[in-house]
Protein: Cell division ATP-binding protein FtsE
Amino acid sequence: MIVFRNVSISYPLPGGQRRPVFENLSFEIQRGEHVYLIGPTGSGKTTLMRLIYMDLLPESGYCQVGDYRSDRIKPAEIPYLRRTLGVVFQDFQLLPDRNVYENVAFALYVTGKRGAEVKTRVLQALTLVGLSHKRRRYPHELSGGEQQRVVIARAIVNDPWILLADEPTGNLDPRVADEIMELLLNLHRQGMTLLMATHDYRLVKKYPARTLAILNGQLVEVDPRTL
Structure:
């Protein structure tokens, strides 16, 4: 479960003032839910994601993700929190000098895993996203949709309970975007919590789920059919 209680956060401005992003924001996401996060550019979608994996901490209030609370977590515990999460970025962030297998394996190496366990997990993740046959290819040899599948494999290889997808289809054409959406929904059906930030209202309407819109620093639940 993800819980935000009275969360406020702001960013510094050049003149010394601060621009509020959220003020007294409260909401919950239950384990196993599929939730869309929508809102205009600059509304705070990425900031909210960063608060969940505690790359940012609230100025007041708290975020709770599973057993971890932002107002109680120690710096040494943050890597353990992040092992329970998978993050999919819009711009892929793949390592260009490593092949598909090595890019996915990297997420396991940084947690200290080695040997046969790495091979088994990587091949399982690549099979889930339909890319085991391209494990020796490099990112520049893949299409945009294939690169995003590698990113998803890397995000799920540690078997996270929640998948955070920040504009995962933003750089893809509609046909490929649908393929990536079907893949994400298949992972959700297997029990993974899915929180997806998106500008693509077409996808939200085609694959409706609970939809939260950021408006003036607050979250408002909206009917996806009205978008």
